[in-house]
Amino acid sequence: MASLPTLQMDKLLAALNDAEVGQHPVEVHGALVGLICGGVEQKPSGWTQPLLELMNDGQALPKELQSLINDLYEDAVTRLSDTDFGFSPMLPQEEESLSKRVEALSLWVQSFLTGIAIIQPKLNQAPLDVREVIQDLSEIAQVEFDVAEDEESEAALIELMEFTRMAALMCYAEFGPEVDDNEPIDVGVMH
Protein backbone atom coordinates (compact mmCIF):
# COMPACT_ATOMS: atom_id res chain seq x y z
CA MET A 1 0.00 0.00 0.00
CA ALA A 2 1.40 3.40 -0.99
CA SER A 3 1.59 6.12 1.60
CA LEU A 4 -0.54 9.23 1.27
CA PRO A 5 2.39 11.51 0.33
CA THR A 6 3.43 9.15 -2.47
CA LEU A 7 -0.09 9.15 -3.85
CA GLN A 8 -0.01 12.97 -3.92
CA MET A 9 3.31 13.20 -5.77
CA ASP A 10 1.82 13.60 -9.27
CA LYS A 11 -0.70 16.17 -8.07
CA LEU A 12 2.02 18.13 -6.26
CA LEU A 13 4.35 17.96 -9.28
CA ALA A 14 1.62 19.38 -11.53
CA ALA A 15 0.88 22.19 -9.05
CA LEU A 16 4.61 23.02 -8.70
CA ASN A 17 4.96 23.12 -12.50
CA ASP A 18 1.83 25.30 -12.87
CA ALA A 19 3.26 27.72 -10.30
CA GLU A 20 6.65 27.63 -12.05
CA VAL A 21 8.35 26.57 -8.81
CA GLY A 22 11.54 24.74 -9.73
CA GLN A 23 11.28 22.10 -7.04
CA HIS A 24 10.50 18.40 -7.24
CA PRO A 25 7.88 17.03 -4.83
CA VAL A 26 10.52 14.95 -3.01
CA GLU A 27 12.50 18.16 -2.35
CA VAL A 28 9.42 19.93 -0.97
CA HIS A 29 8.58 16.97 1.26
CA GLY A 30 12.19 16.60 2.41
CA ALA A 31 12.48 20.28 3.31
CA LEU A 32 9.11 20.24 5.05
CA VAL A 33 10.00 17.15 7.09
CA GLY A 34 13.42 18.67 7.88
CA LEU A 35 11.74 21.77 9.26
CA ILE A 36 9.32 19.65 11.31
CA CYS A 37 12.06 17.35 12.61
CA GLY A 38 14.19 20.38 13.44
CA GLY A 39 11.47 21.59 15.78
CA VAL A 40 9.85 24.36 13.75
CA GLU A 41 6.87 25.95 15.48
CA GLN A 42 3.91 23.81 14.48
CA LYS A 43 1.56 26.61 13.53
CA PRO A 44 1.19 27.97 9.98
CA SER A 45 3.01 31.12 11.04
CA GLY A 46 5.93 28.98 12.23
CA TRP A 47 6.59 26.62 9.34
CA THR A 48 5.15 28.33 6.26
CA GLN A 49 7.66 31.17 5.88
CA PRO A 50 10.81 29.01 6.30
CA LEU A 51 9.43 26.59 3.70
CA LEU A 52 8.61 29.42 1.30
CA GLU A 53 12.16 30.74 1.74
CA LEU A 54 13.53 27.35 0.77
CA MET A 55 11.29 26.61 -2.17
CA ASN A 56 10.15 29.94 -3.62
CA ASP A 57 12.48 32.74 -2.45
CA GLY A 58 9.98 33.66 0.27
CA GLN A 59 7.18 34.39 -2.22
CA ALA A 60 3.63 33.25 -1.56
CA LEU A 61 2.35 30.25 -3.47
CA PRO A 62 -0.84 29.89 -5.50
CA LYS A 63 -3.78 28.80 -3.36
CA GLU A 64 -3.99 25.26 -4.81
CA LEU A 65 -0.30 24.58 -4.27
CA GLN A 66 -0.36 26.03 -0.74
CA SER A 67 -3.36 23.83 0.05
CA LEU A 68 -1.51 20.71 -1.14
CA ILE A 69 1.51 21.66 0.95
CA ASN A 70 -0.71 22.29 3.99
CA ASP A 71 -2.11 18.77 3.54
CA LEU A 72 1.41 17.38 3.16
CA TYR A 73 2.45 19.18 6.36
CA GLU A 74 -0.50 17.80 8.34
CA ASP A 75 0.19 14.30 7.03
CA ALA A 76 3.91 14.52 7.89
CA VAL A 77 3.26 15.75 11.44
CA THR A 78 0.69 13.01 11.99
CA ARG A 79 2.99 10.30 10.65
CA LEU A 80 6.05 11.55 12.57
CA SER A 81 4.22 11.90 15.87
CA ASP A 82 2.30 8.62 15.78
CA THR A 83 4.22 5.51 14.80
CA ASP A 84 0.95 3.75 13.94
CA PHE A 85 0.72 5.94 10.83
CA GLY A 86 4.12 4.85 9.52
CA PHE A 87 6.19 7.82 8.42
CA SER A 88 8.30 7.41 5.29
CA PRO A 89 9.98 9.87 2.91
CA MET A 90 8.00 10.77 -0.21
CA LEU A 91 9.69 8.79 -2.97
CA PRO A 92 8.69 7.37 -6.36
CA GLN A 93 6.98 3.99 -6.47
CA GLU A 94 8.85 0.74 -7.09
CA GLU A 95 7.75 0.81 -10.75
CA GLU A 96 10.25 3.64 -11.36
CA SER A 97 13.81 2.74 -12.29
CA LEU A 98 16.22 2.13 -9.44
CA SER A 99 18.39 5.05 -10.60
CA LYS A 100 15.41 7.40 -10.46
CA ARG A 101 14.50 6.24 -6.95
CA VAL A 102 18.12 6.59 -5.75
CA GLU A 103 18.23 10.12 -7.18
CA ALA A 104 14.92 10.95 -5.49
CA LEU A 105 16.22 9.67 -2.13
CA SER A 106 19.33 11.81 -2.52
CA LEU A 107 17.21 14.89 -3.30
CA TRP A 108 14.89 14.17 -0.36
CA VAL A 109 17.83 13.82 2.04
CA GLN A 110 19.53 16.99 0.74
CA SER A 111 16.32 18.95 1.29
CA PHE A 112 15.74 17.35 4.69
CA LEU A 113 19.23 18.36 5.81
CA THR A 114 18.70 21.92 4.58
CA GLY A 115 15.37 22.17 6.40
CA ILE A 116 16.67 20.82 9.69
CA ALA A 117 19.80 23.01 9.53
CA ILE A 118 17.67 26.16 9.19
CA ILE A 119 15.76 25.38 12.38
CA GLN A 120 18.70 23.81 14.24
CA PRO A 121 21.74 25.91 13.27
CA LYS A 122 23.77 24.34 16.09
CA LEU A 123 23.46 20.73 14.94
CA ASN A 124 27.14 20.30 15.78
CA GLN A 125 26.11 20.66 19.43
CA ALA A 126 23.38 18.02 19.23
CA PRO A 127 23.82 14.70 21.06
CA LEU A 128 26.47 12.44 19.51
CA ASP A 129 23.98 9.91 18.10
CA VAL A 130 22.08 12.69 16.30
CA ARG A 131 25.31 14.17 14.91
CA GLU A 132 26.32 10.73 13.63
CA VAL A 133 22.94 10.26 11.95
CA ILE A 134 23.20 13.69 10.31
CA GLN A 135 26.69 12.79 9.06
CA ASP A 136 25.38 9.51 7.63
CA LEU A 137 22.53 11.37 5.95
CA SER A 138 24.99 13.78 4.34
CA GLU A 139 26.72 10.75 2.82
CA ILE A 140 23.39 9.38 1.54
CA ALA A 141 22.74 12.78 -0.07
CA GLN A 142 25.85 12.23 -2.20
CA VAL A 143 25.06 8.67 -3.30
CA GLU A 144 25.74 7.71 -6.94
CA PHE A 145 22.66 7.73 -9.18
CA ASP A 146 24.02 5.32 -11.77
CA VAL A 147 23.28 1.98 -10.14
CA ALA A 148 22.77 -1.51 -11.51
CA GLU A 149 19.18 -2.69 -11.75
CA ASP A 150 19.73 -5.82 -9.65
CA GLU A 151 18.51 -7.33 -6.39
CA GLU A 152 21.63 -6.26 -4.47
CA SER A 153 21.18 -2.61 -5.45
CA GLU A 154 17.46 -2.80 -4.69
CA ALA A 155 18.23 -4.22 -1.23
CA ALA A 156 20.80 -1.46 -0.63
CA LEU A 157 18.23 1.21 -1.57
CA ILE A 158 15.66 -0.30 0.78
CA GLU A 159 18.24 -0.24 3.56
CA LEU A 160 19.07 3.43 2.85
CA MET A 161 15.37 4.32 2.79
CA GLU A 162 14.81 2.63 6.15
CA PHE A 163 17.84 4.36 7.63
CA THR A 164 16.55 7.71 6.34
CA ARG A 165 13.11 7.04 7.80
CA MET A 166 14.55 6.14 11.19
CA ALA A 167 16.92 9.13 11.11
CA ALA A 168 13.99 11.49 10.55
CA LEU A 169 12.10 9.90 13.45
CA MET A 170 15.18 10.21 15.66
CA CYS A 171 15.57 13.91 14.81
CA TYR A 172 11.86 14.49 15.46
CA ALA A 173 12.18 12.78 18.85
CA GLU A 174 15.21 14.98 19.67
CA PHE A 175 14.04 18.37 18.39
CA GLY A 176 10.26 18.01 17.95
CA PRO A 177 7.64 19.39 20.30
CA GLU A 178 7.80 18.50 23.96
CA VAL A 179 4.67 17.18 25.60
CA ASP A 180 3.51 19.42 28.45
CA ASP A 181 0.99 17.63 30.66
CA ASN A 182 -0.62 20.95 31.60
CA GLU A 183 -1.12 22.19 28.06
CA PRO A 184 -2.95 20.29 25.31
CA ILE A 185 -1.24 20.14 21.93
CA ASP A 186 -2.53 19.19 18.51
CA VAL A 187 0.12 16.55 17.91
CA GLY A 188 0.58 13.78 20.48
CA VAL A 189 4.24 12.82 20.93
CA MET A 190 5.86 10.86 23.72
CA HIS A 191 9.38 11.93 24.76
TrEMBL record:
Belongs to the UPF0149 family. Transmembrane segments: none annotated. InterPro entries: YgfB-like, YgfB-like_sf. This is UPF0149 family protein. Gene3D superfamilies: YgfB uncharacterised protein family UPF0149, PF03695. GO terms for cellular component: cytosol.
